[in-house]
Amino acid sequence: MQSILQILKLNDVREGISSKTGKPYRMQDAECLLLKDTGEVDQVGVLQIPRDLFGTVNPGVYLGTFALRPNMASRRIEAHLTGLTPYTVKAPVAPAAAAAKSGA
Questions:
Q1: Distance, first Cα to last Cα, the chain
Q2: Rounded distance between C-alpha atoms, residue 26 and residue 51, angstroms
Q3: Backbone dihedral region for residue 40 (phi beyond 0: left; psi -120 to 50: alpha; all else: beta)
Q4: Burial class of residue 32 (count of CB atoms within 10 Å of its CB; 0-12, 13-18, 19+)
Q5: Domains by residue range for the chain, with CATH
Q6: DSSP codes, the chain
Q7: How many other β-carbons are positioned within 10 Å of the β-carbon of residue 51?
Q8: Could you identify which of 14, 48, 60, 62 might form a hypothetical disulfide with 84, taking C-beta atoms 3.0 to 4.6 angstroms apart as the criterion?
Q9: How confident is the prediction along the chain (104 residues), in pLDDT tens digits per residue?
């Protein structure tokens, strides 16, 4: 599964010890926009950055690749980011150009 997303800001890495499991954790979130194919904003939200991408992600537009996995705490199936590829949003076709192309 792939989605176009724009990372606006990377939040600081958070570290600590889980109160539920007692295990250490390290996580980073990014403030993001989900974009339509046209570049228009579809949704706004926060995306958790996988540990293997810490330090390699910068603000920008990406094609994000996701995999479905169960959340061990809630047992809900959730999408998890597995990769980011820089992406250029295609400019929308101008109405005059679209009319000329269709023969109108």
A1: 37
A2: 8
A3: beta
A4: buried
A5: 2-102 (2.40.50.140)
A6: -EEEEEEEEEPPPEEEE-TTT--EEEEEEEEEEEE-TTS-EEEEEEEEEPGGGTTT--SEEEEEEEEEEE-TTT--EEEEEEEEEE--PPPPPPHHHHHHHHT-
A7: 12
A8: 62
A9: 899 999 999 999 999 998 888 999 999 999 999 999 888 999 999 999 999 999 899 999 999 999 999 988 899 999 999 999 999 987 765 665 555 555 55
Place of tokens 């109160």: 19
Tokens of 19: 């109160």
What's the chain's length in residues? Answer: 104
Phi/psi for 78 (5° steps) reads -130, 155
95, with CB counted inside 10 A (0-12, 13-18, 19+), is exposed
Interatomic CA distance for residues 30 and 17, integer angstroms: 21
Q: How far apart, in whole angstroms, are the C-alpha atoms of residue 18 and residue 9?
A: 25
